[in-house]
Amino acid sequence: MPLRRMNAVMAADELKALASGARRLNALETVYSAAAPPELARASRVKTCKGHTLVIVAENAAVGAKLRQLTASLLDAIRRSAPDIAAIRIETQVSGAAHERRPPSVKKEMGPGAVQSFEALSARMPAGPLRSALRTLVRHHAPRKPDRR
Asked: Residue 72 is part of a domain; what is its CATH number?
């Protein structure tokens, strides 16, 4: 068998192994997403499966801490579909990629009625930091006047 053809066959076998591993991780991700609370599932993902240990990556420390609290119940739920999983390890990985999955925040405009209400409230307040904060809020959200140049 020529060397090129042999390399092609070996590469095909390696690709099959990679594809099989990817399918398994995808299936485990689906099982994990169904087992975890929706908010936590959106803020975490299956990283890998090493031996009989499922490794889950949390976007931040708070999500990681909550997942660690739920490890026993998550493991029970996951083992119903993947009985070979014997343990779950939670890792925290804060990265730019994790934050890109979230939609960008949108600044919401305050309606004119709300601005007027805050303005009236600030007028009734005694002098102090709360009155100052309300006036700043009103200035920030007041309708802009067109420049007259």
From this structure: 3.30.300.180
pLDDT of residue 88: 96
C-alpha radius of gyration, the chain, whole number: 27
Global model pTM greater than 0.70: no
Looking at residue 105, its amino acid is: S
What is the extent of the structural domain holding 140?
107-149
Phi, psi of 106 (to 5 degrees): -115, 125
User: What are the residue ranges of helices labelled H in 1-149?
Assistant: 3-35, 38-42, 61-69, 71-81, 96-100, 112-124, 129-141
**Which one of 61, 83, 100 terminates a domain?**
100
CA 67 – CA 121 distance, rounded (Å): 43
